[in-house]
Amino acid sequence: MEKTHTVYSTKTKIIRGFLTLFLVVVAFFTLYPLVYIVLGSFKANAELLKGGTRLLPETFILDNYKEAWEKANFARYTLNSVIISVGVMVVTLVATSMAGYVFARKNFRGKELLYSLFVAFMFVNVGSVTLRPLFELAVKVKMNTSLISVILISAGTGQATYIFLVRGFMNTISRELDDAAKIDGCTFFQIYYKIILPLLKPILATICLLSFRTGWNEYIMPLVFTMSNEKMRPLTVGVTMLKNSGDGTAAWNLMFAGATISIIPIVLIYMFTSKQFMNGMTAGAVKG
After folding, report:
1. How far is Cα of residue 138 from the mean position of the Cα atoms in its chain?
2. 121 Cβ partners below 8 Å, 6+ apart?
3. Cα–Cα distance measured from residue 139 to residue 145, given in angstroms and rounded to the nearest whole number
């Protein structure tokens, strides 16, 4: 018995050692590009163009940030990014919370088939294939000159996943609450916003964070929709434009400085909401 216990402990330590090593490797490859960009933002452009494996700059140049802020019109682009991100977040929260509630509580013909299609699309990513027809549609309905079209299209990204999470969380809420509300005279919609919606706060906090990130990081679509209107560009598009602001060479130092500025808000949001994010993901995915 004692020998078996010792062997089991050794196997456990080996497995944990391999898992730790694996996580360290994953963390390294995840954090290295971020560290490279942040430290590169303090380097001279000539130093970046030389290449090499040195991370620390020879001389820390703070003027890169000042120049990037002025050349990229960061104040305007930041406002545009906030408008897009908040708009995507609000539309996503309203649509997915309602859809998840209906799929969990309402019985109608074709419900399971429709839900299966939603779940199937969780694993399908058509990417930029739909960009041209979406743009042509926006032109026909005369919505290509505002950020509304960008918000509505971006809000559709990840809808299937969010509905899956909301429905999974809804299944953990007792139906007796619905029955009690019906006895008090509440309609189906009143049950949603008076009873169910307050109980969905953990999973909605997760969806809030993910959808805000989607809107903040969106690049290809805003680039296409704002080609003819520079004032509509979000930060992601404005940062890439910094690359061409050098004197005949790619201004990587300014682009890195701009990228560092643009990732600060989303990193801070993750830092302060990581606990709620993990709780919501666990509740929606595991319990459901």
Report:
1. 24
2. 160
3. 8
Q: Span 201-227, mean pLDDT? A: 86
**Using an 8 Å Cβ cutoff, are 40 and 256 in contact?**
yes
d(CA 99, CA 164): 9
Spell out the long-range contacts of 128-135 with Cβ–Cβ below 8 A and sequence spacing 24 or more.
128/220, 131/220, 131/221, 131/224, 134/221, 135/224, 135/225
Asked whether 65 and 261 are in contact (CB, 8 A), the reply is yes
Q: With pLDDT > 70 as the criterion, what percentage of the chain qualifies?
A: 88
User: Whole-angstrom Cα distance, residue 44 to residue 30?
Assistant: 25
Query: Do 194 and 186 form a contact (C-beta atoms < 8 A)?
Result: yes
Structure token digits, residue 67: 């120049």
Instruction: Please give the DSSP secondary-structure letter assigned to residue 93.
Output: H
pLDDT digits (tens, 9 = 90+) for 183-203: 888 888 899 988 898 888 888
Average pLDDT over residues 127-144: 80
Condensed to tens digits (0 to 9), the pLDDT of residues 61-103 reads 888 888 888 777 888 888 999 999 999 999 999 999 999 999 9
Cβ–Cβ under 8 Å, residues 41 and 35: no
Q: Which conformational region is residue 52 in: left (phi greater than 0), alpha (psi within -120 to 50 degrees), or beta?
A: left
In the block, tokens 């805000």 appear at: 212
Give the whole-angstrom CA distance, residue 85 versus residue 211.
Answer: 7
| pLDDT recorded at residue 246 | 55
Q: Rounded to the nearest 10 degrees, what angle do helices 111-120 and 159-170 cross at?
A: 130
Q: What is the pLDDT of residue 21?
A: 93
61 with 42: CB under 8 angstroms?
yes
Backbone φ and ψ for 173, nearest 5 degrees, come out as -90, 130
- Tell me: the pLDDT tens digits for 160-177? 888 888 988 888 888 888
